[in-house]
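Continuing the series of single-chain predictions for the mutant panel. This is the parent chain; the variants come on the following pages.
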Amino acid sequence: MKRVSFIVCLCSLALYSIAQQYPTEWEKYTDKKYMYDIQSDINTLDKSETDFKNYLLNIARTNLAKQIHVKVEDYAALKKQAINGTTSITYSSLTSFSTNVDMKLVETKTTYDASSKTGHAIAYINREVAQDFYRNELSIILNKINNSILLAESYIGAGFKSKAQAELNLSLNLFAPIDNNILWLNLFGTSQSEISQWQNSFSTTEQKIKQKLADLEYGTVIYLSCKADLFGTTYTKLQNELKGILATDGCSFTNNPAEADWAITIYCYATEYTSNNFGNTTTYFAYVNAQIVIDKVITSQRIYEDEITIKGGHTTGFTQAAKDGYKKIKKQLGEAISRNIKQ
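Parent structure:
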């Protein structure tokens, strides 16, 4: 029994000795500037040199990934505890991190001594290189967002507010990977002051976009001149109904054409058409005729011009028949305006 114990002890010492015999030039990777894992072993199964080195590399990569996995879980748990009323950063995608390290950041080296069948493998990440990688990722995202804002502002300047809204909404999607990239920066040792600068920069930018979207929500300003004649009487209901339709599309109104994004001029009038008798019932028909012009104020450009005629009918007289026509033409006018100002 004593002899067996002695042999086991010798084997343990031999393996420990092998582990300490990795190339001396690898010592620099054991510095705190690196995250690393080194594997050393004897090729007792007579694998090919390539297979044996790949075997050691796979173990080294897996162990390195496990190191990062632990750091991610610890950091995510810490952040979860720190959530308050104004901060709700989550790292759910990273807390499920497996053994897959981002291979763009992992470097590897191997050696093999054929005479002793001893192999060594190292997988490592240079913390400074990793920080630069994620700084660059964040810079690329921030540049894309800022370019999107500039494009939206150019749309606003040209009067294309709906395009500006679409562009700003797309820019909000660019924020999705930011939290994860900032987490990686933190894990690889970036200072808290720099982390705070990145967070503040993106938070300020996001608030800027949301404010612009809020301003644009009712930012389309319309000057609407709508004159409607009902057999010599002004039919004011048409203008009020059109304003209601446009308000639901996020439009506001002004009485000064110079302050508007769009100047819309509508002139409508009703004409008697005919009446038909069906037994004891007489049905009256009238036409409502509309002329509509839509001008883009900022460019003094006429965007749309058309004439629309609708027939209305009623059993109580031409006035009610014309009102039925106005009810129908209101829908067509509203659709024409909405379609043409969404540019």
